[in-house]
Amino acid sequence: MPPGVVLSKKKKKSKAGKSKTGKVNNKAKKSGKSSKAGNKNSSGKNTRPVKTEKVQKAIEDTEVILTEAAPVEDKAENAVKGTKAEKTGKDTKTAKTGKSGKEGKAGKAVKSEKTGKNTKTAKTGKTDKEGKAGKAVKSGKSEKNKKTGKTGSSVKTDKKKKASKTDKVGLFGRVFKNRAEKTEKDSGKEKPLKAEKSATAVTEDTDSKVSESVETVTPDRTGEELKETESRKTRRAYYYDLDIVRALSCIAVLLYHLGILKGGYLAVCTFFVLSGFLTVKSAMQQETFSVGQYYKRRLIQTYIPLAAVTFISVLVITLIPEISWLNLKPETTSVLLGYNNWWQLSASLDYFARHVSSPFMHFWYVAIQLQFDAVFPLIYLFLKKVREKEGKQAQYLFLSMGTILSAIYMILLYGAGSVMAAYYDTFSRVHAILAGILWGIFSEDRRERGAKQKLVSGDKAALFWFSVLIWILMLLFSNSDSGSFPMILTVVLSIVIIELGTREREKNRVDAVFGKISGISYEIYLVQYPVIFLAQQLLLSNWFRSLPEGSGFREGSFLMAAAEIAVTVIIALILKYAEGFRAGGTIIKKRVAVLIAVALLAAGGAVKYVAAEDHTQELKELQMQLDQIAAELEQRQAELLERRKQEEQDWEDMLSTLQNGEEGLKDAVRQLPVVGIGDSVMLGAIPALYSEFPNGYFDAGTSRTSYVANGIVSSIENMGLLGDVVVFNFGANGEGPDWVREEVVDRLADRKVFWLTNTNYSTLWVNDSIKELASSRSNLRIIDWYEISKDHDEYFISDGIHLTDEGTAAFAKAIFDGICEVYREEWQRKVDAIISEHEAAERMKTVFIGNDLLTGVAPYLDESLSDAAMIVTDVYGEDVIQLVRDAVSGGELPHRVVFVFDRNAYLGESDYAAMAEICEGHEVFIVEDDSQTEWSSSISGISIADFGRSSDFFMPDMIHLTDRGNEILAERIGEKLLNGEE
User: Fold this and answer.
1) Is the CB of residue 780 less than 8 Å from the CB of residue 802?
2) pLDDT (tens digit, 9 = 90+) per residue, 459-484?
3) Distance of alpha carbon 502 from alpha carbon 789, whole angstroms
4) Angle formed by the axes of helices 680-692 and 805-844, to 10°?
5) N-terminal to C-terminal alpha carbon distance within the chain
6) C-beta of residue 281 within 8 angstroms of C-beta of residue 541
């Protein structure tokens, strides 16, 4: 009988001396003559009668004991039904757990006849190295490893029987063999990796069921007599706490993928530990480890669901035209062949990125699990050999060294900044699996030697929940930037939780919930990322964007996350339902129909996969081209930054000069070759004037009027002393007509002319004449000495015209200040012009921010735009918004900002509107693709929507542009930015 399959109630014929698993020719020694009896065995042949009533009584007692010791059905735990006697006269068989010694002899079958039925009871027994029979059974109790004396005549039988093994079926239909108890050592050595006292069947990586079988009947050493021993009923233990751990880990990973639980990625470490622990426990509890059966189970339990989800995902994605998945062929191949983790490393995929660029990004874990499944038999057989030759400690040493070296390798990778290598690398992650194997072997060895638990159940439960609480806190407060320490600590903590979780207790209502989640945990893991990927892709569609802002269906929203969880669980339940199409040997038609539907969908996806083109080489060439352009852009950006820094420094220096220009202006005015022409008032102030203008020339005399001004100017000009600044002071002695003053001012049209008003009350009308002339001559400025000296009697002698010493100083200062004011105005005009020119240049400065789309178009931009700053980034979604926010706060953005992102950036209208708001005061442009519709009025779009989906403009992935597409886009950007065309 194959492991774990219970005999059906239907009658089956078997020959004497044969069992379902093979032939064992165990013969008992005859101790007396046979007698005839009317009882027949199942083959219809007569048995030899028992000579004494005592022996007959022992046989009947044995039948009762064996029937009671059979496993009892446990509906709540989906246990395998034990063998029961049929009330309708049918043949009933009770399986016998036994194990032959070196000589291969087994105990005798015991027959009895009850109520007209042929009841066949197999006897649990075991022979030693010499093939002698084991122990007898008495009153339903067995004494372990204890020999008793003979209690009566031996029972003879003319048919040879073989003991059958009691099999158990795990929660998910996994089959494991129970092992019989072995107490003696072979040639002074223990059998490697075998239980010594009782067998415990543990599910491999998805079950937490543990069954224990204790031998009930063993034949005597001589096989001639039955010995009375104590026996105990077979009992099944289910570790409900491990279901809780698996369910919580499943929930944590799902919430991490949804972006809700930032430390949920650590739960994968717990999955790895559980896998190693349960797989090795299952292998150790099999009497004979079958490599073929192991691979068969892994194929059914792990690979077939993986292949189904993979192909169905391919089918669904290829049926949605808006989704372009250029890596379909190579990535799907990597999943099916179990090297997806290495493929993701080569493709530089970031598992911690907030976006989902592939539906299979989570299959790196399944790939490592498949790699472990492939080599586990080799590891297991190697450890058996090590244990057989070197002892237990040697295998512990090997596993410990492997675990430590793998953990150190992860730490080194993290330290070198290779975060994704540390996360995806098989040799970096294998320490978690090896730790689980190590603890599984230790746990099984401890159980076999009968070590007592040091903690009572209550204390163990309290410590279990305390450890789980710490584990949950790590998930809440860790993140992808935390390094390798949280991952290694999670492995250690998982060992503690598993140790505390392997305790027997009664089932409660909460266990039922966790059991259901645990039961579909693998299916949930397989399905969740394809669902999330499709949800993110649909969020970029026009249909979703047409939904109102308050609908709640936005990326990261509660409703969207709830919908993704619901869809994931429903699909997982459908897959699980289809997997259970066979129960207890019976095919369930409804489940077969679902299974056929799933198989047909998977077959459709397989056809799509086979027909898909492999663009690997094309993508490599594109990536090489983009990398080369990116390197050139990086070098150019470095040079541009240096040039911009120097320009900024020069401007700051100039601005500082302009701001501090007044003092410099006075020094410059003081050095001017100022020419002064005037009457006796200026004559008295000449010493003070030379003090203010050491390079000046002054010609003044008594009784002068403006009639002489033109002649004096000619004389000074002939001497070569006429400078750019000429100052006149006439009017105290009377004044000529207006044309005299107009003539001299016009003659000096290319120079700055200053004219002082006079203080002689008899000629004040001259002041008005001079001011009127200044209003029509741009080169003439008035220095209003009358207003400056008004109310300053100390400036004048008694006539109120000529100056005192204090007056001459004030007179010279008034001329100096008047000249400074004109130059200050000119200086300010120059400053304003310089600032305006600088501001205009700054307004023309542009920064491009984008991803691969910007990298592709950069070489085609107009030369004036190619000198713009370019920020190429690989961040997505909200990270782009944060990048813009940081640039604005740091004052790094010039006036014009152009966003050049393709659809891989996962940016929507609301995202661009948010960035435009952040860039308030800047002129913002965006490049729209055909998935973007109406934009905020504050954003100037550079549309490429009319590209459509033309192959002339897009690469096969329908995201990157061809050379022609990049050229056209560059032209449109230039038209918009340089010419201001709409």
Assistant:
1) no
2) 888 999 999 999 999 999 998 888 88
3) 107
4) 50
5) 81
6) no
